[in-house]
Amino acid sequence: MIIQAILLVIAAGFLLLFIRHWYSVQTRALKRLAFLVFIALMVVAILRPNWVNSLAHKVGVGRGTDLVLYALTVAFVFVSVNTYFRLKTQEARFTELARVIAVRDATTLNAQRLGRPVREAAAMTDVSGPPGLATPLPPLTGGSAGGAAR
C-alpha cells in the first residue's frame, strides 16, 4: 500500500528532524507550520468528507476514516516525541538552576562564617545562572543562606 510508505517516510523524517536539530529556530518554525497545516487539513476533512474518502482510495486505504486514523497516529507520535524532548530540556534547566543556587548559597554562608563581605564572596563564583536563564539570580539579602535558621 502507498500509505504505508508515505507514513514511514513522514515518521522517519520527523524523527531525524527532532533528534538532530531539536533546538534550532527552523525546527520550531516547522513545528508551527506543521500544526497550521494539520488544522487546515482538519477543517477540510470536516467540510468535505468525500475528499478524504477519495484521497484514501488513491493512496490505497479503504475508507477515509482509516486515513484520518493513520494521520492522527502520526500526529500523536509527533506530540509524544516533542513532549519528551521538552521535558528533558526542562529537567536539565532545573538541575542547572538548583546547582547554581546551591553554590551561591554555600558561598554566601561561607563568607558570612569567615567574616568576609558577601559581595566579595559572590564575585569569586559564577552566579549568573544556568544557560538559557533570562536574568541573573538575585543576590541573597540578610539572614542565613537558604532561609534556614542558624
Q: Which whole number gives the mean pLDDT?
A: 77
Gyration radius over CA: 26 Å
Count of distinct strands:
0
User: What is the distance, rounded to the nearest whole angstrom, between the alpha carbons of the first and last residues?
Assistant: 72 Å
> In which range does the helix fraction lie?
over 70%
Uncertain stretches: 142-150
- Kindly name the structural category: mainly alpha
**Overall 3D form:** rod-shaped
Number of helices: 5
Quaternary state reads: single chain
Task: Report strand %.
Answer: under 5%
Give the biggest beta sheet: none
Short descriptors:
single chain; 150 residues; mainly alpha; 5 helices; 74% helix; 0% strand; disordered C terminus
Kindly summarize this structure in a few lines.
Residues 142-150 have low confidence and may be disordered.
Structure notes:
This protein has 150 residues and is an all-alpha fold. The protein is 74% helix and 0% strand. It has five helices and no strands. It has helices at 2-20, 25-47, 49-59, 64-114, 118-124. Helix 3 packs across helix 4 (64-114) and helix 4 packs across helix 5 (118-124). The chain is rod-shaped and about 80 Å long.
